[in-house]
Automatic annotation (TrEMBL):
Key words of the record: Cell membrane, Heme biosynthesis, Membrane, Transferase, Transmembrane, Transmembrane helix
Entry membrane topology: Multi-pass membrane protein
Protein name stated in the entry: Protoheme IX farnesyltransferase
GO MF term set: protoheme IX farnesyltransferase activity
Domain of life: Bacteria
Pathway: Porphyrin-containing compound metabolism; heme O biosynthesis; heme O from protoheme: step 1/1
PANTHER family: PROTOHEME IX FARNESYLTRANSFERASE, MITOCHONDRIAL
Entry function: Converts heme B (protoheme IX) to heme O by substitution of the vinyl group on carbon 2 of heme B porphyrin ring with a hydroxyethyl farnesyl side group.
Transmembrane spans: 55-79, 100-121, 127-146, 153-172, 178-202, 223-244, 250-271, 283-304
Further comment: Carbon 2 of the heme B porphyrin ring is defined according to the Fischer nomenclature.
């Protein structure tokens, strides 16, 4: 009786593990949680425009935005692979860890970005495709290199981060209406306290990676905290515009006020130097819960009134 070939089984097992590892590596390159947020805000923009019930357009929006956002994330990591290798928070990412070769990541990122943009151009309309292309280009070619050049990178980077609602709006209407620009403003302003909180929490890591962040040039965090608070106030005011301009009811407006108080509290606490580190983490967490608590009621209000 022959014994089983354990060497063959071992090789097959190693091959299967290697394949799963590589697939997982490519998946992680797309920054799925960040990309998911882009998809959700694009859907918010689409639904806020009260679109025609066209499944093909919606499918193109979902798939195209997912691919383009993932592609932009891959290209961002390809460009920042050397810096990522220097930071504790990012050194285990697929490229610096050696899991995915840089060339393969570049081709993967370009493929996702191009195909995602084409899906929105052909499956929705040219304006949606154009805004998608602008989102990818500004994130990869503008925001990413500016992180090594100027502290203004956070403000500039908030532009591509706020464009997904306009992609959704354009997919629905073929143009951008006033409420669409209000959604852009809300997403733009929201990112500032959100990312200032992140930048302060990981300031040592960013410095190690060679990034020029405001949190690295502001020794005690006073300027970072003040700007986070000012933008938080501007954010809360912008969320009232749909109601004040007659697009939404005071039912949504009341929720916007309550949500505003919720995010202003940690933003105010962030101003206190003695608890700034703790306050930064609380502001970051509050900002995550704040956005869906605000945008979901807005969409429901727009559809119900």
């Amino acid at each position: 009786m022959s014994l089983p070939n354990t060497d063959t089984k071992s090789i097959n097992s190693d091959t299967a593990f290697s394949l799963r590892s590589r697939v997982n590596g490519y998946y992680e390159l797309t920054k799925p949680r960040l990309s998911f947020m882009s998809v959700i805000t694009a859907i918010i923009g689409y639904l806020s425009a009260d679109p025609q019930r066209d499944f093909g357009t919606l499918a193109s929006l979902l798939i195209g935005t997912s691919l383009a956002a993932g592609g932009a994330a891959v290209l961002n990591q390809w460009l920042e692979r050397e810096a990522d290798a220097q930071m504790v928070r990012t050194k285990d990412r697929p490229i610096p860890s050696g899991q995915i070769a840089p060339y393969n990541a570049l081709m993967f990122g370009m493929g996702l970005s191009i195909f995602g943009t084409y899906l929105l151009y052909a499956g929705a309309n040219p304006l949606a495709g154009l805004i998608t292309a602008a989102t990818v280009a500004s994130y990869v070619l503008l925001y990413t290199p500016l992180k090594k050049l100027t502290t203004w990178n956070t403000l500039i980077g908030a532009i591509p981060g706020a464009l997904p609602p306009l992609i959704g709006w354009a997919a629905a209407e073929g143009k951008i209406s006033t409420l669409g620009w209000i959604l852009f403003a809300i997403l733009f302003l929201w990112q500032m306290p959100h990312f200032f909180a992140i930048a302060w929490t990981y300031r040592k890591d960013y410095k190690q990676g060679g990034f020029i962040m405001l949190s690295n040039t502001d020794a005690d965090g006073t300027i970072v905290a003040r700007q986070a608070f000012v933008f938080a106030v501007a954010l809360v005011l912008s969320t009232l515009l749909p109601t004040l301009l007659g697009y939404a009811s005071w039912g949504y407006g009341s929720i916007a006020i309550i949500a505003g108080c919720y995010i202003l509290r940690p933003a105010w606490t962030f101003l206190k130097a003695e608890i700034r580190d703790t306050a930064a983490r609380r502001l970051f967490i509050a900002s995550i819960f704040y956005l869906p608590a605000l945008l979901i009621p807005l969409v429901l209000d727009l559809w119900l009134i």
